[in-house]
Write a structure and sequence with these properties.
Mean pLDDT: 91
Strand content: 5-15%
Shape: globular
Number of domains: 1
CATH superfamily: Glycosidases
Radius of gyration: 22 Å
Largest sheet: 10 strands, mixed
Distance between the termini: 34 Å
Number of helices: 15
Number of strands: 13
CATH topology: TIM Barrel
Oligomer: single chain
CATH class: Alpha Beta
Length: 474
């Protein structure tokens, strides 16, 4: 989805704590100009609206379970009572989802270092179950950070927890990703890792030994050519805490073997937590440098001039330059995602791709600036289209779902991603209830729908956790 972002307490006392309240929760959803704004602390919904989620848990039971969750942190007897509620709600969820459309209802989640504190992550996952979700997509590689323990991170990227470990807030061995998988499964949730793909993050470009991996256009520029980030403020891992836009994202050359190996290594390490599957976002090129209509029309504006990409391009037939260049760009995306997802395939786990339905558009002499050939992805891979179109009645979203279904094989799982929240319109998006009703009526073969994002449904939970203020006994 490329789906949402930004971060937590920082690298330096007051500045870091200030950044917590000002930075964006889901920055990368600015890309594409499809109507999903940055969901920063000030743009979250003011309050939680329950709405009418399918398979939701009644209020009294939610309250009772939460009471015993908090008590379980202090009383051994309460642990058994809380576990009983968790078990009953797991069974209820599994039964309800078997009988209720959609069969799979997922939600997208970012975890924070604060979630390592006793009882905090349990609260988050309980809230997810309470709303009838049976799948959670957890960000595991995003904005140049990986959700790996500091003590077990052989990748070129910093751990999400690097600064929290430096401050003594969690041990270097802490594996919040593995803990999320374990606790989610106890509650009847399947867990997918959600990974960026060609977007490697600002910090990757600071490495002298990785300069040849970066994507470049015909003028030798990287995708940071229009970045507004001050290297003095963004360097040394601090970019993770800033408020990026598409111009601040660093994309790599999909033909470069080093880039493929780096991400494949990260995926291999993340799979040690034994998730139920992986989805890959940003399976495309940067929109940096597109024309006003979001299209590209000149070969030199394509991000295919890295050394590895040019070497492969020179070895291919020299037909009409434009068509050859576009096909070369498309093939790079296809080859890259196939390479980095291979560790998932070898484990026999589901692979999914996140994409914009419009990202594969192409016409005479032009191509969508993202060059996202999702219609060519393997039919066995799940397709998670970000159906974020804006219209009052939600029909435009149903239309996007229909278009993806038409371009997908019948056996391919299509799981539309809807942005917004329950019970109310938000940021121009109709309520989940309204859009899901339209999808069910018009495309009943859809059996999976996911919602972006937990932070928009539970804004106070997200605010406090991001700020490092949430306690499990609250």
């Amino acid at each position: 989805m490329g789906m949402v972002q930004r971060r937590k307490p920082n690298v330096g006392g007051r500045w870091g704590r200030t950044c917590v309240m000002l930075t964006a929760v889901w920055g990368h959803f600015l890309w594409g100009g499809v109507g999903v704004p940055v969901a920063g602390a000030q743009s979250l919904p003011a309050t939680t609206v329950w709405g009418e989620p399918t398979c939701g848990v009644p209020l009294r039971e939610r309250q009772e379970k939460d009471r015993w969750r908090r008590a379980s942190l202090k009383s051994r007897e309460a642990v058994n009572l809380y576990d009983g509620w968790v078990r009953r709600h797991r069974q209820r969820l599994q039964r309800c989802r078997r009988e209720t459309w959609p069969e799979i209802q997922g939600v997208w989640l970012r975890v924070y270092p604060n979630d390592w504190q006793p009882g905090v992550l349990e609260d988050v996952l309980d809230r997810i179950v309470n709303r009838g979700y049976n799948r959670v997509f957890v960000e595991v590689f995003y904005d140049g950070r990986v959700l790996l323990p500091v003590a077990r991170n052989p990748t070129p990227w910093r751990s999400v927890f690097a600064e929290a470990v430096q401050r003594g807030e969690m041990p270097a061995e802490a594996d919040l990703w593995a803990k999320t998988v374990r606790l989610a499964r106890e509650r009847g949730l399947s867990v997918y890792g959600w990974s960026f793909t060609l977007n490697f993050g600002y910090g990757y470009g600071e490495r002298n030994d990785r300069q040849g991996v970066l994507a470049r256009n015909g003028r030798g520029e990287t995708t940071l050519v229009r970045s507004r980030l001050d290297p003095q403020q963004a360097g040394g891992g601090r970019a993770f805490y800033l408020d990026p836009t598409e111009a601040e994202h660093l994309f790599v050359d999909p033909y470069n073997d080093q880039g493929r190996a780096d991400l494949a290594q990260a995926v291999t390490e993340l799979l040690k937590a034994n998730p139920d599957g992986m989805v890959f976002d940003y399976v495309r090129y940067s929109r940096t440098g597109v024309e006003a209509d979001g299209r590209r029309r000149r070969v030199e504006d394509l991000w295919i001039f890295g050394d590895a990409s040019r070497a492969v391009w020179r070895s291919r037939p020299n037909a009409a330059a434009w068509d050859t260049a576009v096909e070369h760009a498309y093939q790079g995306v296809l080859d890259f995602v196939a390479a980095v997802s291979r560790p998932v395939q070898q484990r026999g786990l589901p692979i999914g791709t996140v994409f914009f339905p419009e990202g594969n558009r192409r016409g005479q002499g032009w191509v969508d600036g993202r060059l996202q050939p999702w219609d060519r992805f393997a039919a066995a891979w799940e397709r998670h289209p970000m159906t974020y179109a804006l219209c009052e009645d939600g029909q435009c979203v149903a239309n996007q779902v229909g278009e993806v279904l038409r371009q997908s094989a019948p056996k391919t799982l299509v799981c539309p991603v809807l942005a917004g929240t329950w019970g109310q319109s938000f940021r121009g998006h109709a309520s989940f209830e309204r859009r899901m009703r339209l999808i069910r009526e018009q495309y009943p073969q859809v059996r999976c729908v996911s919602h972006f994002v937990y932070a928009w449904m539970e804004p106070e939970s997200d605010r406090r956790r991001k700020a490092g203020l949430q306690r499990g006994d609250e």
